Amino acid sequence: MGEASHRFASLRQELVAKLIGSPSEQSPELVQRLVELPLSLAQKYLEIDAKGILQANVKEQFQVDLRMISTAFNILEKYGRNLLHPRKPHFWRTVKFNNPVFRDTVDTIQGGRDVLRLYGYSEEKADGLYFPDRLLEPNIPHVASVTVDVMMLRTELNLLLSDTHPNPQALQELMQRDYSLQVDIAADAMPLNPLSAISLAGNLPPHTCLLCGLEAPSQHCSACNQSLCPNCDWLFHKHPSRTHHHRVPVKNQTWQNPPPPPPPSLCSIPSESTSLRLPAVSRSLPNPRPPWRCASCQKTNDARSVLCADCDRPRGCKTPQSLSPEEELSSLGQLARGRWSCQTCTFENEAATVLCAVCERPRLAGRPGTGDAKPLIAWGEENGPQQGDAPSWQCEHCTFRNSVRGRICEMCNCTSLHSDPQQSPQLEKEVVGRLKREVVEAPAEPKGLWRAPPISSEEVEHQRQEKLREDGQKMVTMIREAESVGVAPEMVAAALCYSGAELPLAWLNSELPCVLEGMAELATQRGEKEPGGGLGAITLQEVQTAWVASRGDVDEAVSRCLSARRSKVRELKALGFEERGPVLQALYQNNGDLWRALVQLQRARLAPFHQRLWESEDPPVDFHTPDRQALLRRLLASLSLPSWGRAELVVSLMLEQPNEGWELADIVEAVKASPSRDFIKRLLSWECAVCSLALPRNKMQLLTSCECTICPECFALHFTIAVKEKHITDLVCPACSEPEISDETELLNYFSTLDIQLRSCLDQETYELFHKKLTEHVLMQDPKFQWCTHCSFGFIYESEQLEAKCPQCRKSFCVQCKRQWEPQHQGLTCDGFLEWKRTNDPEYQAQGLAVYLQENGIACPKCKFSYALARGGCMHFQCSQCRHHFCSGCYGTFYASNKCPIAQCPIRRSLHGHHPRDCLFYLRDWSVPRLQRLLQDNNVAFNTDPPAGTRAAPGGGCRVMEQKETMSGLKDEPCGKETPAEYAGLCEAHYKEYLVSLINSQALDPAVLYTLQEVEIVCRRHLTAAQLLPQGPAEDEEAYRGRLIQILRDQVPLGLEIPRRRK
């Protein structure tokens, strides 16, 4: 037993894990292995009380009760799987009590709500069970464990019902009854209805109907070799394959009662060896569920009954039984538009539903019958049919009230025992008498044999209701299968009435097309005999519609087709289509659809108008026509003018401008904009801000950054040149140069609008170039964007290594110092690598200090684009990539007129920059000895002689490269100027640049060498009047100079805030 428990725990944990991983996957093999283990209920079921649930719900009807529990646990298992699924249903947090599935399955057993509480539905309210608001998700492991118990119990009940349970001894805890199981099962195996135990069909006399066996035959078919009564003959030979059979009347046939059947055989009683292996259930049952009271007749019924035992009305029907048919119809109330009321339970359903949401009966199913109920009769009146009342009878199978004489039901096509209300009492007397004679004439049974207990009326009623439920379920299943493949329920009903096939869907797919073709041919032949030229060919769609409406009756369907075709022809004739040929052709081409045929006929009549409408353009408007009213009406209709006065304004303006050359469309746009004649004339003669050409305002181009109007020619020419030859930031207004783009967000907003205008005025090549430049400009804003120092190609470099390889030229460079990458740079800082080159590279040493100035090039402080600086020019630079203006000495910004951020700047109206006092812009005016003194005072070494190994330049002179202007353009050549002694092989200008670069690299302040006049000029340049205090009366010049220098160094320090690139 310990090994079995251990194996059970292992298998159960595996099943729980499977449920959590894949809730929708079925695992019947794993559940079967769990059930087969020989363990008790307490050992198997860890979460639910299986023993208590079975004892509380199993009554005398053992199989029915077990099946009911199995059905409820099947629904509970689905609840558990839904909670485990990642995509839960929309309303998973609530289980409503009025849900038909919950009410008819889970809530019919005791303990069903307890299982839902184990799932987590712990809050019970008046309308249902709810998940607590504090729990956002269910407890997945616990829900999976409860679901495993539910699956195991449902499997065990199914195995027990099918007599295949591997361990029936596991349910010995429930076997506590005082009587044996064989007696109960034998009693259940006996026939429930005495009438149904008599086999009428097996003892038919030779002169009775072969189908119903109740009436004498009246027709004999030689092809079928059968003799049938009138009703059965009509139904049997209604099939298309038997309609041509020839029948002859049967004469001299008398009705004879069938002989009594033989007595029941003892072998029909099951023995103990063949009894089911179902354990007995204990009699100590808790209180059963309360019965329900019928709302119509107040009869108390069993809790599991669907219909009342007295009046055959469902549980939810509240209409009194004594109401007349008219009152019953009026009691349904006024239904909403498109909704329908169930004839069984009076529930109001949506229009799109076919089955009732409460009782699941079809929409076309009639009201349940009233059984043997009879109408009240006044005292002294005869209990017979009244004159004028139509004879009717109730079907024993589906309870449908038939109005046609006979025994075959119009709803279910089943034969009933009582066919005529007048003959029913006589037939009942004959059957009852025959049964009494059989009982009297039956031989006495031995006293020692077992006798079956009598069947109670409640059991008979229960069996009848079960039969009703099964028949209804079959009908519901059939309708659902049809709807799943797109077949309407009416089609299924017609197929059943016509063919009687058990599989109507298969018959509709295989046989219906042939039947419809035959009916269409028959209807066409009959329609040709119509006076006036016939009714034309009947389509299959018309035939199918009529066939469904006639419920499968071929003759009625043909009549309906011809009648519908006649009415359609009359309607089209009344609308003016007198000729029958086109009318019949249109109806045939549109499958009998009246409105589509009407559209086709009207389109044919309008064809000449449509052809004339699109053949040529509208004739030009003649403003000199004498009919001014017609001209104004035409303008109002075709130009969408707002008023009659605006139309007159258009006419007057067109007549006033013989030499202006205005177009009608321009005048209309201007008139729509304003009713003022003067303003309209200004709109029609708007001047271009570039070329002063006068054009209508609606033809001018406008930019969002300004109010300048530009003619289309100037607009296209300006932006074509700017895109091809200038930077992206130069795409501004050609008249006012707006906007001044400094903010990237403002730039993107401006170009998003400009892109729409350029798309229509630029050629495809220029427009693609505009997009390319705009894309490069956006990429340059990325902090990881790098420019190649070899080929000026830009790319995004996301690596953290110093060596970067250009994807364009495949050459490497350092991302920090921008020098060409060499293997010696690996593992060294940029300063260390430069020092190594000065010490060990012969080529570097041969160029002397010229290479120092060459390597100390410039880089744009905004986009970081590097330039190899050719010395000897202006210090004002403009980046070719981002159009930024800056100083090559300090990297400070140059401001255009009125763009300086300093409001009190005295040179605000000119192009200028604010340089620090150590910038080459100021120090290039110092003498060489003064610069050398500043370096010597701060112990900074500098060269006065050329470095060892320096080669002289060809022809002598300075070796520093300069950009020189020649006849062929700008060209980089060596400086070539005279190199004085002790200037390290450089000319005076380049030697000063060398000394200033050393001063900048060491962050030396030149203010210590300022004279009094120089320090006053610098203070006025960088300080305000309030910060600059005048010289005191007792203060000498040297003290005043010292004080100004100290103020300058404190207020305007030289530090890392200067945007100069430092080496």
From TrEMBL:
<dbReference type="GO" id="GO:0097039">
    <property type="term" value="P:protein linear polyubiquitination"/>
</dbReference>
<keyword id="KW-0479">Metal-binding</keyword>
<comment type="similarity">
    <text>Belongs to the RBR family.</text>
</comment>
<feature type="domain" description="RING-type">
    <location>
        <begin position="684"/>
        <end position="918"/>
    </location>
</feature>
<dbReference type="GO" id="GO:0070530">
    <property type="term" value="F:K63-linked polyubiquitin modification-dependent protein binding"/>
</dbReference>
<dbReference type="InterPro" id="IPR013083">
    <property type="entry name" value="Znf_RING/FYVE/PHD"/>
</dbReference>
<feature type="domain" description="B box-type">
    <location>
        <begin position="209"/>
        <end position="250"/>
    </location>
</feature>
<dbReference type="InterPro" id="IPR047540">
    <property type="entry name" value="BRcat_RBR_RNF31-like"/>
</dbReference>
<dbReference type="Pfam" id="PF16678">
    <property type="entry name" value="UBA_HOIP"/>
</dbReference>
<keyword id="KW-0862">Zinc</keyword>
<dbReference type="InterPro" id="IPR000315">
    <property type="entry name" value="Znf_B-box"/>
</dbReference>
<keyword id="KW-0808">Transferase</keyword>
<dbReference type="InterPro" id="IPR047539">
    <property type="entry name" value="UBA_RNF31"/>
</dbReference>
<dbReference type="GO" id="GO:0061630">
    <property type="term" value="F:ubiquitin protein ligase activity"/>
</dbReference>
<dbReference type="InterPro" id="IPR047542">
    <property type="entry name" value="Rcat_RBR_RNF31-like"/>
</dbReference>
<dbReference type="InterPro" id="IPR047541">
    <property type="entry name" value="RNF31_RBR_mRING-HC-like"/>
</dbReference>
<dbReference type="Pfam" id="PF18091">
    <property type="entry name" value="E3_UbLigase_RBR"/>
</dbReference>
<dbReference type="InterPro" id="IPR026254">
    <property type="entry name" value="RNF31-like"/>
</dbReference>
<dbReference type="Pfam" id="PF22191">
    <property type="entry name" value="IBR_1"/>
</dbReference>
<dbReference type="InterPro" id="IPR032065">
    <property type="entry name" value="RNF31-UBA"/>
</dbReference>
<dbReference type="GO" id="GO:1990450">
    <property type="term" value="F:linear polyubiquitin binding"/>
</dbReference>
<dbReference type="Pfam" id="PF25163">
    <property type="entry name" value="UBA_RNF31"/>
</dbReference>
<dbReference type="GO" id="GO:0036435">
    <property type="term" value="F:K48-linked polyubiquitin modification-dependent protein binding"/>
</dbReference>
<dbReference type="InterPro" id="IPR018997">
    <property type="entry name" value="PUB_domain"/>
</dbReference>
<keyword id="KW-0677">Repeat</keyword>
<dbReference type="GO" id="GO:0071797">
    <property type="term" value="C:LUBAC complex"/>
</dbReference>
<keyword id="KW-0863">Zinc-finger</keyword>
<dbReference type="InterPro" id="IPR036443">
    <property type="entry name" value="Znf_RanBP2_sf"/>
</dbReference>
<dbReference type="InterPro" id="IPR002867">
    <property type="entry name" value="IBR_dom"/>
</dbReference>
<feature type="domain" description="RanBP2-type">
    <location>
        <begin position="336"/>
        <end position="365"/>
    </location>
</feature>
<dbReference type="Pfam" id="PF09409">
    <property type="entry name" value="PUB"/>
</dbReference>
<dbReference type="InterPro" id="IPR057426">
    <property type="entry name" value="RNF31_UBA_3"/>
</dbReference>
<keyword id="KW-0833">Ubl conjugation pathway</keyword>
<dbReference type="InterPro" id="IPR017907">
    <property type="entry name" value="Znf_RING_CS"/>
</dbReference>
<feature type="domain" description="RanBP2-type">
    <location>
        <begin position="288"/>
        <end position="317"/>
    </location>
</feature>
<dbReference type="GO" id="GO:0008270">
    <property type="term" value="F:zinc ion binding"/>
</dbReference>
<dbReference type="InterPro" id="IPR047543">
    <property type="entry name" value="Bbox1_RNF31-like"/>
</dbReference>
<dbReference type="InterPro" id="IPR001876">
    <property type="entry name" value="Znf_RanBP2"/>
</dbReference>
<dbReference type="InterPro" id="IPR041031">
    <property type="entry name" value="RNF31_C"/>
</dbReference>
<protein>
    <recommendedName>
        <fullName>RBR-type E3 ubiquitin transferase</fullName>
        <ecNumber>2.3.2.31</ecNumber>
    </recommendedName>
</protein>
<dbReference type="InterPro" id="IPR036339">
    <property type="entry name" value="PUB-like_dom_sf"/>
</dbReference>
<dbReference type="InterPro" id="IPR044066">
    <property type="entry name" value="TRIAD_supradom"/>
</dbReference>
